[in-house]
C-alpha cells in the first residue's frame, strides 16, 4: 500500500482523511475517546507537513439524514484538545458550509466534516449513488488518506469509492493495524492462544472456523460460552443460548480435537437471578448452572486457569469480554484475562470493540499490551480471511 510519503510534498494541499471517530456518547459526553486518540498521530503528521486537513468520519447509525444526537461536534471539541489546535466543524458534510470552511483553511489547519452517514450516498448499495457522493467528497480535496481501520471492511463512499478518485495512501493507523494482523495470521510465534468472548457465537463463526487451522489454543468465555456448554449436553439455565448454532459448535469441538487445537472452556461461572448488579449471584460449576439463573461471567477458578494458559503463550489475540464487565460483580473474569496479558511475555493484541473498552474501563494502562486495535468488526473479518474493500482499493 502507498504511504503518506508517497503523496509527495503536501504543503498547501487539501488532504481528505477518513478517520474512525465512532466513539460512545452519553448525551454529548464522550465515554471512551480511544478511537479519537488513535486518529491523532496521522492528522498531526499531515498538519506538520503543511497540509490543509479535511477530516471525515461517521458516528452512530443515522439513516441517511441529519440527527442532532449523532453530530460530530463533541468529537471535534475533543480532537481539538488532543491536537492542541482548533478544529472547525462544518454544519454539513459536502454542502455550502463544508465547502466554505475547506476553502478558508490555511496550511496546517483542520476541519471536521459533519457525520458522513447524514448522507444516504455514504452507505448506499447503489454504485452510482455512492459514487456521486464520493465525487462530492473528492471535490473538497487534492489527496486522500485512509486512516479509519474500523471501517475498511465496508464498501462505502468515504472508504472505497473516494480512493479511486484521488491520489491516495494508507495512514499510519491502517498500516499499523495491517502489520499486526499479518503478524497474527502469517507464521505467528507459538504457542498461539486466542481468547474469544462477547455475547454471540454467531458473531465469531468465521473467526473460529479460520483459527481452528492456525491457533494452538482457543479460550472461550462471555455469553457465547453457554452455547459451547449446551453443545456438550450441559444445563445452562436462563443464560444466553443460540440453539440454532449447537450443531455448528459440536462440529468445531470435533474439528479441534482432530486438529490438535485445545478448546478451553470455563469450569465455573458466576450465575445470577437477574441481569443486574444487585441481583443474587453465586459461583457455580459450569456444568451445574441452576435452571432459574443466568451466567454473567466466568468464575474465579476459570479466570485463574485462563491466566495460566496465557502465561505460557508467545502470541495472544483477545476479542470479547469474559462477562458483563460494565457491572462490577461480573467484571472479574475480564479483569483476570486483561491482567494475564499484562503479565505475560507474549505479543498480545486486544481486538478492539468491547475488549478495548473493557481494558480502559477497568483502568489498565494501554502500554501494558502489545497492541490495542481500533478495528472491531474489521479485525475479525481480516482474521476470517475475507477481502476488505477499504484495503484492496489502496493496493
Give an account of the 3D structure:
- Helix 8 (225-231) packs across helix 9 (246-259).
- Helix content is 35%, strand content 16%.
- The chain is elongated and about 65 Å long.
- The chain contains 14 helices and 17 strands.
- A six-stranded parallel β-sheet has the order 5-6-4-1-7-8, sandwiched between helices.
- The protein has helices at residues 34-48, 73-83, 96-103, 127-138, 157-161, 172-185, 205-211, 225-231, 246-259, 300-311, 332-343, 353-361, 377-383, 389-392; strands spanning 14-18, 25-26, 29-30, 52-56, 87-89, 110-112, 143-146, 168-170, 192-196, 217-220, 262-264, 268-272, 281-285, 294-298, 315-319, 347-350, 371-372.
- The termini are close together.
- The chain is of the alpha/beta class and 395 residues long.
- Strand 12 (268-272) and strand 13 (281-285) form a beta hairpin.
- The model has no long low-confidence stretch (mean pLDDT 95).
